[in-house]
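Hi V.,

You were right to ask for the full record rather than a summary. Here it is.
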Amino acid sequence: MALSRAEIRGGFRGLGIEDGDALVVHGSLSSLGRVEDGAEAVVDALFDAVGERGTVAMPTFTRYDEPYDHEGSPSTVGAITETFRTRPDVVRSSHPTKSVAVRGPEADRYVAGHEPGNSLGPGSPIHRVVADGASILLCGVDHTANSTLHVAERLAGLPYRDQTAETTRRTDGETETVEVNRVHCSRGFESAGAVARRLGLESVGRVGAATVRLVDGPELLGLVAGLLETDPGFLLCDVPDCERCAYARRRLAE
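Predicted structure:
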């Protein structure tokens, strides 16, 4: 049997999501198993769960090697995010590689002024939504997909978040080159998940075949930013050939 919109909504409600809540969502459609109407049903179920007063935000990240078009560039982080960003009541930030889409009463404020040099940092859309009390919903993914932890890196002032890259974007028919702040490796982010579970910041449930986690966003952000101030290498991975984490360790040793 295919999973229905009502069943997905029921799973979200069972996790503790209520009318009026705000969510930063990271999800994998395939993790749910067979879904009736696919990503459309998942997006509808999220809207059902938080209601008209609620807020849903999702990353809609794009490629560095293709010009960013605010309306047309597809999200590269999954079918749910691509379906979400194309809904008529969803607005998207203008960052050329790390755009974020939001639906909710304050959506325009959340996405405003997303400058190229501030991909996932203080004052970026994800930071604004979480700072206003949003929970983080991980649907079939773990904390390696949790973009809020990149915000924590910037809040902690970690020196390895200084890397930049050039990309292009189209504005009014013109293509321009801009410099963006690169995000870092996220393969070590489950260390934050372990702490969140130990401290009771995370609720766990099931939706279809997927494990879903609802995390207290402000508490997690503050906790991890504090941990990084005392242990700056807390989020780094142990993959031997990870050039980004090797760079980070060199910067931390300087």
